[in-house]
């Protein structure tokens, strides 16, 4: 079955989809993106993802390329054409095509690209074993709350993790506090049993999975704190885990080769993963909601 991409008003065979060489995304990383998980053909938390897309665009003074309702229609048409059941929808908006010059072009039409990717569930082995993370210095800019396509530090961090046999790199700020992973948010269960994740600020991307999980944790009556935690606190935490649109909730068993807790996936992390999957299942069961449960999906956000 041919796979399609959407590029500035046209559905094109994926292999032939292309943008102009003077697209400012290509030349300056002057654009933003979103990754929306898809399960059983339905989008997960579409509303919050589109809210974040609009916010990122506003912060960079790029116009929405089409109306929000049109974005939703294109998403569904692309998913239909690609017969997408489980995976992710990728949306990218750049400032558009213009002769190369740093300042904003006087006139440029924002460029919109959308692709989909079918992904496989996380293996049971991965879930049972848990994952490892390494710590790296956070060398990014001061607006990590914007979901910019400028991801070079994140790329370098993920590559370093991969070469170290780890799943993710946790970035550490100048004061020794964990900001977040290269494409995931960071969480611990403190020595006192509280769930802790860094507060939303310009220092992190406030993940949509993070927001949904925070709600679920509060509803379930677990104690949660949105605050910074150091690498040292993380290494002596009872549990650690990460969240993202492609990982959902994944238990961390080692940080820089230091075992977390007893070195096995934590009980609370497992419960939270299950709650998150139930949450998605409930959305899928709700005709107005539009998603379903999954065991997690492999692929990078
Ligand atoms: N932090 C960073 C830097 C990310 O790139 C991502 C996802 O791409 C996340 C956190 C998790 O965000 P979400 O849960 O919306 O996927």
What are its keywords?
301 residues, alpha+beta, nine-stranded mixed beta sheet
Report on this model:
With 301 residues, the chain is of the alpha+beta class. It has 8 helices and 15 strands. The protein has helices at residues 24-28, 46-59, 68-81, 124-129, 152-163, 208-219, 231-235, 267-285; strands at residues 4-7, 10-13, 31-39, 42-43, 86-94, 111-118, 131-137, 168-172, 178-181, 185-189, 195-197, 224-226, 239-244, 248-255, 258-259. Strands 7, 8, 9, 10, 11, 12, 13, 14 and 15 form a 9-stranded mixed β-sheet that branches. It has a 6-stranded antiparallel β-sheet with strand order 2-1-6-5-3-4. A hairpin with a 2-residue loop joins strand 3 (31-39) and strand 4 (42-43). The protein starts with a strand and ends in a 16-residue tail after the last helix. The chain binds pyridoxal-5'-phosphate (PLP). Residues 35, 154, 180, 183-185, 205, 207-210, 243-245, 301 line the site of pyridoxal-5'-phosphate (PLP).
How large is the radius of gyration?
19 Å
Extract low-pLDDT stretches: 286-301
Arithmetic mean pLDDT: 93
What fraction of residues sit in β-strands? 25-35%
What is the overall shape? globular
State the major sheet.
9 strands, mixed
Bound molecules: pyridoxal-5'-phosphate
Give a topology summary.
Elements: E1 4-7, E2 10-13, H1 24-28, E3 31-39, E4 42-43, H2 46-59, H3 68-81, E5 86-94, E6 111-118, H4 124-129, E7 131-137, H5 152-163, E8 168-172, E9 178-181, E10 185-189, E11 195-197, H6 208-219, E12 224-226, H7 231-235, E13 239-244, E14 248-255, E15 258-259, H8 267-285
Parallel strand pairs: 7-8, 7-14, 11-12
Antiparallel strand pairs: 1-2, 1-6, 3-4, 3-5, 5-6, 8-9, 10-11, 10-13, 13-14, 14-15
Helix pairs in contact: 6-8
The protein binds pyridoxal-5'-phosphate.
Residues 35, 154, 180, 183-185, 205, 207-210, 243-245, 301 line the site of pyridoxal-5'-phosphate.
């Amino acid at each position: 079955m041919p796979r399609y991409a959407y590029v500035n008003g046209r559905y094109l065979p994926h292999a032939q989809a292309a943008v102009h060489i003077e697209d400012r995304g290509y030349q300056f990383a002057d654009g933003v993106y979103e990754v929306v998980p898809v399960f059983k053909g339905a989008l997960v938390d579409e509303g919050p993802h589109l809210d974040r897309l609009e916010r990122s665009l506003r912060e960079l003074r790029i116009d929405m390329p089409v109306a929000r309702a049109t974005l939703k229609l294109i998403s569904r048409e692309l998913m239909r054409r690609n017969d997408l059941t489980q995976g992710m929808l990728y949306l990218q908006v750049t400032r558009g095509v213009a002769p190369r010059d740093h300042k904003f072009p006087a006139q440029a039409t924002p460029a919109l690209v959308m692709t989909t990717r079918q992904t496989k569930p996380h293996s049971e082995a991965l879930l049972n074993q848990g994952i490892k993370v390494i710590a790296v210095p956070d060398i990014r800019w001061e607006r990590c709350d914007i979901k910019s396509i400028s991801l070079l530090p994140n790329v370098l961090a993920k590559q370093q993790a991969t070469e170290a046999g780890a799943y993710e790199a946790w970035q550490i700020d100048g004061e020794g506090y964990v900001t977040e992973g290269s494409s995931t948010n960071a969480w611990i269960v403190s020595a006192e049993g509280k769930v802790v994740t860094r507060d939303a600020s310009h220092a992190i991307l406030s993940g949509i999975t993070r927001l949904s999980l925070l709600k679920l944790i509060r509803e379930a009556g677990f104690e949660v704190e949105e605050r910074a935690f150091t690498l040292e606190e993380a290494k002596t935490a009872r549990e650690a885990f990460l969240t993202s649109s492609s990982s959902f909730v994944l238990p961390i068993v080692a940080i820089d080769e230091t075992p977390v807790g007893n070195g096995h996936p934590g009980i609370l992390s497992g419960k939270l993963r299950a709650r998150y999957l139930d949450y998605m299942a409930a959305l899928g069961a709700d005709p107005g909601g539009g998603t379903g449960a999954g065991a997690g999906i492999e692929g990078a956000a």
